[in-house]
Amino acid sequence: MESRATRIGLTVFTVLVLLFLYVPIALIGVYAFNESNVQSWPLTGLTTKWFSPALHDPAMQSALWLSLKAAAIATAIAITLGSLAAFGVHRFRFFGREMVSFILVLPIALPGIITGMALNSYFTYWGINFALTTIVIGHATFCVVVVYNNVLARLRRTSPSLIEASMDLGADGWQTFRFVTWPVLSTALVAGGLLAFALSFDEVIVTTFTAGAQTTLPIFILDNLRQGQELPVVNVVAFVIILLTIVPVWVSQRLTTTGESPAVSRAAAVTAQTE
């Protein structure tokens, strides 16, 4: 049994880690309401005057739209490929299965700059111009991993007896998927898709167009950071990104931790009703 000193030490350590991670993020939110365009402490006052110029900036709106569009397409691709890969690895036994799983997971472990450099070299070698397509390809390399891990984990925790019972009762493949497999996997797919969208939305891999006419939101922030007078606008945009990213991550976490049992129960109930 853990001693009182151990519990206190772990609590203090956890609090320090959380402060280390989230205090800088909280400061960005505070500076978004800073009355001065100079970041200093304490604040001279609070205001919302920077939100209007930031949110009505045509360059910011274009970057936001491009980021949302790239994230949505990359997420759709990730859900399709990630779920298919998870089904294949889980259902079939073949030589090199573990290697396939390792290769699928590897992109999420590599630093983003490495993946970006590799894709940049590949696209340049084949003469492919940077555009929305290349952005989607770059983001899909790690979004697939997120969906794959979520779906595979759910499949491994699901009893195969549900599918076997459905097949024994005469259900075809589509009926088994609709009434048994989908209720079990739906929350895992939604959670993986939301997390993939959040990761893609704020990623910087292969994000600029060759003509430089359009950029994604992270590139917009980096460009404006070079201009000292634009710091308030950057803080507002960063604050908005944080809010937009927190929501899908929180929903994904809730679905991952609480969505399995009801789904399994519904699938089991449907199977029992067909007996």
Helices, by number, come to: 11
* CA radius of gyration: 23 Å
Q: How many DSSP-defined strands?
A: 0
User: What do the pLDDT scores average to?
Assistant: 78
Major sheet size, sense and barrel closure: none
Helix content percent band = over 70%
What percentage of amino acids are in beta strands?
Answer: under 5%
Alpha-beta classification: mainly alpha
Q: Sketch the topology as an H/E string, one letter per element.
A: HHHHHHHHHHH
Distance between the termini: 48 Å
Shape: globular
- Unreliable spans are 205-212, 260-265, 267-275
Key terms:
275 residues, mainly alpha, globular, disordered C terminus
Topology diagram in text:
Elements: H1 4-31, H2 51-55, H3 58-91, H4 97-109, H5 112-125, H6 132-157, H7 161-168, H8 173-201, H9 217-225, H10 231-258, H11 260-273
Helix pairs in contact: 1-10, 3-6, 3-8, 3-9, 4-6, 6-8, 7-8, 8-10, 8-11, 9-10
